[in-house]
Amino acid sequence: MIRALTGFSTRNPWKVIALWAVLGIAMTFLNGALVFRVTGAQPGDFLPAGYDSAAALKVAEERFGVKPDANTVTVLVGRSDGAPLTGADEQHVKAAAEKLGRKRVAMPPQKDAGPKFLLIDHSQTPRVAPAMTAPDRSFQLLSVQLTGNSMDPGLLNVFRAFRADARAEFAEAGLRSGFTGGIASVTDTTDAGETRSKVVGGLTMALIVLLNVLVFRSVLAAFLPLLAITFIGGAAGGAVSGTAMLTGIKLDGSTPSLIGVVLLGIGIDYFLFLLFRYREQLRAQPERNARAVAAEVSGRVGTAITSAALTIVAAFATLGIASFGQFRVLGPAIAVSVLVMLLGSLTLMPAMLAMAGRKMFWPSRALKRAPRPGTAGRLGELVARRPVVMALASVALLGVLATGLAGIAMDYGQGGSGEKTAATETAAEIGRALPADAWEPTTVYVTARDGGAALTTGRLDGLSRDLAAVKGVGRVGPTTLNGDHRAARIDLFLTVDPQTQPARDLVAGPIRATVRAHSPEGTQAHVGGTAAVFVDIADAVDQDLRIVFPVAAALIALILVVLLRSLLAPLILMISVGLGFAATLGASALVFQHLLDKPGVAFTLPLVLFLFVVALGTDYNILISDRIREEMKRPGPARAAVARAVRSTAPAITTAGLVLAGSFGSLAVAPDPGSRQVGFATAVGILLSASVLSLVLVPALAALLGRGTWWPVRPGRTKHRTRSPQATRAAQNPQPAPEPHHVPFP
């Protein structure tokens, strides 16, 4: 199957390239139009219905008309001179709020937004209502609600238009205004990071081109991989969005950007694997037709690429069994995109090799001379000559980094971007005058059971008094009944920030315990709000970690057994990537939790990092293992085979590791703290996998075990013979063997 695809592609390169170009461009437009229809922005949207905060969200939607895609913005209005608000000022605020609440805000036109008939029109009339006045009357707060996906640029433009109208309206009365919370914070962060995102994206592309130029000294080899990834990535994005639309699945807002980084990294990796082997074979067979070499190389390397890609797919597919929806949709989405990348690696990339031929490496003259051993050759000889020392050194380095796991904590807070924006300054001003969650209360929803009596405020007074007595609850709002008096809402204003661990401890402990103990008979109550949502997310993630980790590890091990046709080699690879994962997570904890004094590492990091480091790191291990087995099929000492394998694959693995680490490293400057941690940690993990694990630890263990690495099938095992002194010296000082001469295709 693999050779059939690569063979067809190398025989018909222009047809395959044209097909991918059309498919990539069309699917890119489709993805741009659909992506914001299939993404959700609220963490609570991904909780299973059985969790308390999820039940509270359901009551809010069904009984109080709270829309699931509602975005609440808090507007601060104060006097421009800083004086307390007067009665006349408050009348101006009231009149302006009523006017803004009646005015429909049209969605401004969007540039480069794809076909207009696929766009969502977010034009709407916002809901504007008074919230509260500061005790010192320095400002008044308004609550504004806009509906839609807060990640959609169209809705952000609607908010920008509303904000401009509001500022002008209040300014006419000599009042200043500030906006914070929800979509206001998203808009400010997006605006602040727009230039940075473009710069980082440009630098990432420049890094890839520079590395390719330095390695291949070629124009086509530098830019063709990027062109291929553009077409394949566009097709993959459209496939994921289209699948989500057809199945009704909601993707997490960070999924599209994460998929883009993954595809860029592994796509360049796969193309590099092909390029290095293609150049190697062209050097060894200068008289052979380049298209025939492309077909042979693509078929041979395509097998390793398929093995690596299927490992990634299997690892991420296990997330489908997670209970937390953010994980459950992330895994299959990445799996689908990697499958598309695999198809492109077996068709488009071989077609580009066949199309370019030897011109792929123009103007370099590297094809006309044999490569020098260089650093890769010296590393291979060192690992083969001193395997025990190199293995122990690798384990020691990984062990030192893994010490960061001691006392590691999970951070479930959203934490904001950490950047100083107008929204954060407005939030800080509100926080200096009002309780920590004055604009983001924790809410208790009480509903009457079927057949039970209707609710009254008097019937719920006891629960309100008991909640007010809980230490950490600063104030309890009035009880609000819905239209049929079958549900009630009680807002709790905590004395701590709802996005912090103390707030989560307060909700998980005293507040929920009080609600369970003192809810009136014949009712059921649920606690909602930011703190409650993250308490339940913590529980869901803890359960998923206990299930997904062993299932993913077992599945990857099984795949490696099938692919490598060995029992011992997969064990070596799994132990090495396990050490790499522990070292990477430990290094992340050392940096973020201890050095930068964060509350902990992002709650999604262990699971996402496990899958990325194990799955993507296994790519390099499979590549080096496949080459070691190939070299061991030749007669001669096993250690000499290991030296040749390291020499041949080190440049490809090193370059690919730098590209993949650079791709993920671009996330380290993202505005979202969780994305920054994922970017940093994954980059570190990939570098460890590409350098320490794949080029040192795995080859060293293979050198120690020899052909027994592949037990029960030992490749190239030969009978012991009496060796000459020259042969003995060659075994002790292994040198790279020349590439075998292949008979050209007829």
Describe, in plain words, how this protein is organized in 3D.
The protein contains 21 helices and 13 strands. It is elongated. A hairpin with a 5-residue loop joins strand 10 and strand 11 (487-494). The model is unreliable at 718-746 (pLDDT under 50). It has 746 residues and is of the alpha+beta class.
What is the overall number of helices? 21
Straight-line distance between termini: 22 Å
Output the structural class: alpha+beta
Cα-atom Rg, whole angstroms? 30 Å
Shape designation: elongated
**How many DSSP E strands?**
13
Provide the helix percentage. 55-70%
Largest sheet: 5 strands, antiparallel
Round the mean pLDDT to the nearest integer and report it.
Answer: 83
Strand content: 5-15%
Low-confidence regions: 718-746
In short:
With 746 residues, this protein is an alpha+beta fold. 61% of the residues lie in helices and 9% in strands.
Keyword list:
single chain, 746 residues, alpha+beta, five-stranded antiparallel β-sheet, four-stranded antiparallel β-sheet, 13 strands, 61% helix, elongated, disordered C terminus
